[in-house]
Amino acid sequence: MARGGPRNKMPQQDAAKRVKNFDEVALGYTEEQAIDEAERCLNCKHKPCVAGCPVNIDIPAFIELIKSNDFTGAAAEIKKTNSLPAICGRVCPQEEQCEKLCILAKKGESVGIGRLERFAADYEAAHSTAEAAVEPENPGLGQYNVAVVGCGPAGLTVAGDLAKKGYSVTIFEALHKTGGVLRYGIPEFRLPRNILDREVKYVESLGVKIITDIIVGRTFRVEDLLRNGFEAVFVGSGAGAPKLMGIEGENLSGIYSGNEWLTRINLMRAHREEYATPIKIPQKACVIGAGNTAMDCARTAMRIGSKEVTIVYRRSRSEMPARAEEIENAEEEGVKLMLLTNPKRFIGDEKGAVKAIECLRMELGEPDDSGRRRPVAVKDSEFIIQADTVIVALGQNPNPLIRSTTEGLETQSWGGIIINEETGMTSIAGVFAGGDAVTGEATVISAMGAGKIAAEGIDQYIREKHDITTE
Amino acid sequence: MCSKNHGEMCNLAELTPDSLKNTIVHKEKLSPVLTLFEIRAPLIANSAKAGQFVIVWTGEHGERLPLTVSDWDAANGTITLIFQEVGRGTIELGRFEVGDEIPSLAGPLGQPTEIKDFGTAVAIGGGVGTAIARPVAKALKDAGNELITIVGAREKSLIILEDELRSFSDELIVTTDDGSYGRKGLVTEPLKELLDSRKIDFVVAIGPLPMMRAVADTTKPYGVKTIVSLDAIMIDGTGMCGGCRVTVGGKTKFTCVDGPDFDAHEVDWNELRARKAFYFEEESKDRQATLAGGDE
Ligand SMILES: Cc1cc2nc3c(=O)[nH]c(=O)nc-3n(C[C@H](O)[C@H](O)[C@H](O)COP(=O)(O)OP(=O)(O)OC[C@H]3O[C@@H](n4cnc5c(N)ncnc54)[C@H](O)[C@@H]3O)c2cc1C
Ligand code: SF4
Ligand code: FES
């Protein structure tokens, strides 16, 4: 294949089989496929793809290393700016980022940059001998403590980067497990837990302490951290408050937010007999929304044995915000799409459980602020669809807990924490923030990128405060 | 690690997972189905206020259970939980012994109960709800209220904390459904007599849903401010999942962050009852299996 040819397909678990398990869907390139795919890269001098990468990985450089069979070297090149490549290679929306700007995308299919990133990261993980202990760059900084609130990708990145510099870092996490959305939100058939566990272990191996079951704002406040032992605090508390529709009947039982549905299954493993958290296997589940969370909810519902799963979305297919690949996967697995349809109210049975949704047909009107055509209800088009389970997956608002318990912390009207883009510092000296807590629901890679910026900002802040000049 | 507790908030940078082990220091069976734990949890003991709760996770296969903090001792760094062994989770929790560590304990969560000098306050505890009503009642008394406490249960062995409540209440009334102790009947009977006979300024009721609802119905015609503490189904307890939502005054609220206390006259009780009963089948199957001895 190589130059000029189409891109190498990602080997996948067969749809009929995978819909019965939670194993990873995409199986990853073989060495031959990876080299063949790498050969397609033109090694462009002006590297247009790099501009699309939120953490500026030198993409042609790592692809060149794959071409020359140096897979470990390729992983090392990626790791210069991306600390979680095995995760990003799996969950980044590359088609919106690097691959969108790839020169080959103009004429045909871009280089499979994400697939190659994943390949290099997995190769390294499989072949590296016991992780050599990383020596902190400057052990003298160990006397300075930094607190990180939240153990999602933003928090893990800040913690890892600061620990490498030599700081003593403690992560405080509200839940009983690490990973944030990577654990409770993104299902394991997209991101296997051993990969997440490996990344968390790596951060711990750098000396970072992770303390779970601490709800900052309740167990203690941000200001307590600053007053009792920490030089700086990073807030990476994510978005994490579900958006609801606000229509009649939404609190009937059997209606879940996407977060609740995914948390029950991904975090609490409610679908497995030996786990105590309950869940009902749907006969007919409807998922409202068409983003990545909606796809994850629908595909998870299929896997726990639902008879029928339908995505209900008010716009048309081309406006669906989920990654094209995930929509395809969902359809292959038997998820149905009901487009240009919007729920008007939920109808309950005599026990107060949802049994049907009254919907309206929609048509597309003028473009709205997002540039997508605005869906408009067709008059008198009401119709009823049956559903014993409804999952409302419309995205997240920032969780108000930190905001409401931290005096002087400035936020946007919608709740996002305001920061200085260059340093990550908030309106409070010594308090930094990044990730979904700042941007609203975004991506793993942007949370990681924000973590990197804040790590530099915190380093600079502590150095200035204590007049530290050593490199 | 600093001294054994964090009553005076110590250097938080010295905390380690090991220094925060939630060890059970005291266990007491208050009745065949009611268990009391005193647990080492210095950070929670330091911040807890009346009306707040914790989330307990009993281990890999366990669920996250919300339990209201019944008492706390900041100086000793311990909290007290009283729970009824009703479902799989609480039965499993009841199997922990002194010296065992609770795998996960997070809190304090929720809004503290609004406490001020209302005048004459009635605090009502039903069954295990009495354990939760205790700190609220005490705080009401400390704030200057004249305090009347009503405690109700199915039968005598389920009446708890009687002596302690008597020690700080201006008046204590005990009722049992079967008349095996105190007055025979429901808590709403003495409540109605009080409402008819004197000026009551504030009522707080904590207990099983039908009892709280009955209290709401009883006080409503009198227009007396009435607060209830709702025990919706929860998972995270931090506002992340929305599973705990209730309709109060026509608006959707999350019990774990907006509550657990709400105006009893505004709660949509039918909806709450339906949401709480949704997993009844799954739960009773689990409960049978747990009682049959299968620990996991
Ligand atoms: C279902 C789903 C699928 C997604 N799929 C993708 C995808 O394919 N690709 C992609 O790039 N992005 C995806 N995203 C978005 C992505 O997961 C997030 O943008 C990213 O995880 C944000 O990282 P974060 O570190 O800012 O926050 P989070 O991952 O949300 O982590 C925040 C952590 O902070 C903890 N926390 C919150 N408040 C407190 C507190 N007060 N005290 C202590 N701890 C606290 C939380 O428990 C959580 O663990 C998806 C999101 C969802 C919900
Ligand atoms: S734009 Fe595409 S072809 Fe050019 S260097 Fe980047 S990945 Fe290779
Ligand atoms: S328990 Fe999840 S939001 Fe309240």
Q: Mind explaining what this structure looks like?
A:
The complex is a heterodimer of chains A (471) and B (296). Chain A is of the alpha/beta class. Helix content of chain A is 35%, strand content 16%. Chain A is built from 19 helices and 16 strands. Chain A has helices spanning 15-18, 31-39, 48-51, 59-67, 71-79, 85-91, 98-101, 103-107, 113-127, 153-165, 181-184, 193-205, 222-227, 258-267, 292-303, 324-332, 401-405, 436-439, 444-465; strands spanning 145-149, 168-172, 209-211, 232-235, 240-242, 255-257, 284-288, 308-312, 336-338, 341-348, 354-367, 373-377, 383-386, 389-392, 396-398, 431-433. A five-stranded parallel β-sheet of chain A has the order 3-2-1-4-16. In chain A, helix 10 links the parallel strand 1 and strand 2 (168-172). In chain A, helix 2 crosses helix 4 (59-67). Chain A is globular. With 296 residues, chain B is α/β, with parallel strands linked by helices. Chain B is 27% helix and 31% strand. In chain B, strands 6-1-2-5-4-3-7 form a seven-stranded antiparallel β-sheet, with helices on both faces. In chain B, strands 11-10-9-8-12-13-16 form a seven-stranded mixed β-sheet, with helices on both faces. The longest helix of chain B is centred in the middle third of the chain and has 14 residues, at 129-142. Chain B has two domains: 12-109, Beta Barrel (Elongation Factor Tu (Ef-tu), domain 3); 120-229, Nucleotide-binding domain of ferredoxin-NADP reductase (FNR) module (Rossmann fold, 3-Layer(aba) Sandwich). In chain B, a hairpin with a 2-residue loop joins strand 14 (245-248) and strand 15 (251-254). The interface between A and B is large, with 56 and 56 residues. Flavin-adenine dinucleotide binds at residues 91-93, 149-155, 172-175, 180-182, 185-186, 214-217, 236-238, 240, 262, 292-293, 296, 399, 401-402, 435-437, 441-445, 447 of chain A.
